[in-house]
Structures are given as C-alpha cells and as structure tokens.
Design a protein that fits this description.
CATH superfamily of the largest domain: Type I PLP-dependent aspartate aminotransferase-like (Major domain)
CATH architecture of the largest domain: 3-Layer(aba) Sandwich
Number of helices: 12
Helix content: 25-40%
Radius of gyration: 22 Å
CATH topology of the largest domain: Aspartate Aminotransferase, domain 2
Shape: globular
Distance between the termini: 40 Å
Order of helices and strands: EHHEHEHEHEHEHEEHHHEEEHEEEH
Strand content: 15-25%
Length: 398
C-alpha cells in the first residue's frame, strides 16, 4: 500500500490521525467517476441509476465495517457533521444533562455546549484523560472508566459523549461496556461516539453496533478522500430522533412540498442525510478500503500498527527527557509524548516546525500539551528510527 501513496514518497509522515495519504488507485477511481458522470450527463435520466448504485454500494460497505444493517448507516461529510446532525435531533428537554468526557475534540464539545445553551441543558464532565494504561493496562482502563461512569451518571443524564479512541492520549475506550451500562440506567441515556481515530485503524463493529451515534470519517486512517464519512445509528435513533438540518435526501418523497405532511422523513438513516453530495468521493473511499483489505483483516492490520507503535513507544521512553503520555505501549497507533530539558517542557509547536523543515511530520496537541505521532501499516522501521533520532536531538541540551 505504501508504494501506492505518492504523498509518502518525499517525506517522513506520522500524521495519519489528521489525514491519511490517498492511494493512486483511489485517485484514479475518483477521476474515472467524474468522467463517467459527465458522459452520462450530470442531470439526465441515465445518471440516476449510476448514482443510486454508488450510494448503495458505499452505504453497504461502510455498514459491513460497522456491523450494522445498511438502513442504520447514514452517509456524512465528516465526523463533525456525523455527530452534530443526529445530536441536535435528540428529544432532550430543559434540565436534562449531557455527560461529556474531558478528551473530546473541540468540534464536538462546542456543538454540545451550543445544544445545551439552546435547550437549557446542563453539562457534566466524565474524567478519562488520566486513564493512560496503554495496551497492557487496557483491562484496568476499562474497569476504571466504568467505575468513573458510575460515579458521574446522574438521574438526569440523557446523553453520554465519549470517543472510541482518544485523539490526544491514544487510549481505547470500552464502548460496548459503556452502552450496556447505559441500558441499565433509568433514563437510558443516548451514547454518542466520536470515531474519528477508529475506522481504518482498529476493528469497530463491536462498538459501532452498540452506540446510538457512531460517527467517523474516511480521510484519516482509511486513507480515503476528504469530504466523506458515515455514521452508524441505533434503531431507537431512527424512531426517537428528528432531523434538524433538512434537505431533499431527508424526505420520503423529494418531489413535493411537505406542508401538512405529518410524516415527511425517511424512517431509516437517510433522515439524517441532507442534500447533494460528491458522488466520485464514494468510489474513491471504497477503493481505499479495498486497498486496506488487501493488507489483511482489521485485526491483522491492528497487529502491525501496534507492533510499530510499541517499537516507537519503547524507543522514545528510552530517551532522557522524553516522556510518553501513556504508561505502556499504545493499544493502537497514536503515540503521544512530551519533551523536556530539565524541568522545562519544550514547546511542542516549535518542535513540529523544526521537524517539518526536515520533511518529518508529526503534530502538537494542546490538552494535554504534547506531541503526537501516528504509526500506520504504511509506516516503516526506518521512519521510526528517523523520528526517534530527531526527538533525541530535541531533548539534548545545546
């Protein structure tokens, strides 16, 4: 797969958690789809069967990855829209509580706070940032998370927001176990899962099929084009939640006005789709997923990823002045760490700039203040060595 990604030919790349490189077969598939659409005519009778096939094929493939039937899989543009569109349709009322983890992405956090402001909901925090056991400590992490959940749930909790794989520390959260606990809660809170770092990196069907909203994108670990993602929805979301951003794709009958219609929306996941999307991106994402599958099953790919992340974690942990965020090798491919000289932490943003000048790309994060490198199946041992040597130089006093 590495040889199919032109973006990896001239740089040392560790930012798969931000955006993955697009393989050439995916780019070719996108171009071929654009060409075909123009040949058929972008708005002719001949185009609609083609578009319908593209949409259904993409929905079906993403549904299989998530372990849900196609009617529970909606197409979206990205993780944020996948979270926000169904979130704002939840039947919450004044005084209800949102319990949101302290490791969520600002895009989701801000959406939840605006939702709370509009409906006069309350916000509570579920602490997870301190759960840093790594792969070997995953069982303890799961137990601590469930214990913390028990402590912070209240009778008014109606929504829990938690990422599958924390984007800053790299720890995996036990989504199915959380869902099972919420089913026992008297208010049966909804579970919204940010899966930005999950699809394409770790097996997701167990978690995706258990959550009420499981939103993901194709442009990160799956190495698809930006602008296309999906969300797996529970059955109750299809009956209890209403769309708030509405377009012709939301409607059972897109050809007429809905004045006086008591039931205008689709009864499946399409009720949370809005309007025109870029069809060629769909064939591009499917091609990227096929390229990934040629590298092995999701479990086999994760084994490769964690082998690389463990190698990097161990190498960084051995450098004086470098402190990995997790206490042991990561359960996936996110390796976060801090660099200090004496008692002073080196500015992560400045490190990113200096390494980037040498075409070595990682990123800095604000909370916790750290650096993050991502190991993918495309990552090589030589790249790990190059990163380790560069970090060692940063940690060495001048």
């Amino acid at each position: 797969m590495r040889d199919l990604c032109p973006a990896l030919a001239n740089k040392t790349y560790f930012n798969y958690g931000g955006q993955g490189p697009l393989p050439t077969p995916s780019l070719d598939a996108i171009t071929a789809s654009w060409t075909r659409i123009q040949e058929l005519g972008p708005f002719t009778a001949e185009i609609w069967p083609y578009i319908s096939k593209e949409v259904n094929s993409t929905r079906g493939q993403l549904a299989r990855i998530c372990g849900v039937p196609p009617h529970r899989l909606a197409l979206s543009e990205n993780v944020t829209t996948g979270c926000v569109l169904p979130l704002w349709g939840l039947p919450l009322k004044q005084g209800d509580q949102i319990l949101i983890s302290d490791c969520e992405h600002p895009g989701v956090v801000s959406a939840c706070h605006e939702f709370a402001r509009r409906l006069q909901l309350t916000i509570a925090t579920l602490p997870v940032k301190h759960l840093r056991g790594g792969r070997d400590g995953q069982q303890q992490t799961d137990e601590a998370l469930l214990s913390g959940l028990e402590e912070h749930l209240s009778p008014k909790t109606r929504l829990v927001v938690l990422s599958h794989l924390l984007w800053n520390t790299g720890q995996v959260m036990p989504i199915r176990a959380v869902a099972e606990r919420l089913e026992q809660h008297p208010a049966h809170p909804y579970l919204l899962v940010d899966a930005a770092q999950s699809v394409g990196q770790i097996p997701v069907s167990d978690a995706a099929s258990a959550a009420d909203i499981y939103a993901f994108t194709g442009h990160k670990w799956a190495c698809g084009p930006e602008g296309l993602g999906g969300l797996a929805l529970s059955e109750r979301m299809l009956t209890e939640a209403n769309p708030t951003i509405i377009g012709w794709r939301s409607l059972q009958d897109e050809s007429r006005a809905i004045a006086g219609d008591p039931d205008p929306f689709h009864h499946d996941s399409r009720r949370f789709e809005v309007a025109t999307s870029c069809v060629p991106l769909m064939t591009g994402l499917r091609r990227s997923l096929e390229v990934l599958d040629q590298e092995g099953s999701a479990e086999e790919r994760l084994q490769r990823i964690t082998s690389l992340s463990a190698t990097l974690w161990n190498a960084l942990d051995a450098i004086p002045g470098v402190t990995p965020v997790l206490d042991g090798p990561p359960p996936a491919g996110l390796v976060s760490f801090q660099i200090s000289q004496g008692a002073t932490q080196i500015d992560p943003a400045a490190v990113v700039q200096r390494l980037g000048a040498d075409q070595l790309w990682i990123r800095d994060l604000a909370d916790p203040s750290c650096l993050r490198a991502c190991t993918h199946i495309c990552t090589t041992v030589e790249e790990l060595e190059r990163l380790t040597n560069a970090v060692s130089k940063e940690a060495t006093p001048c």
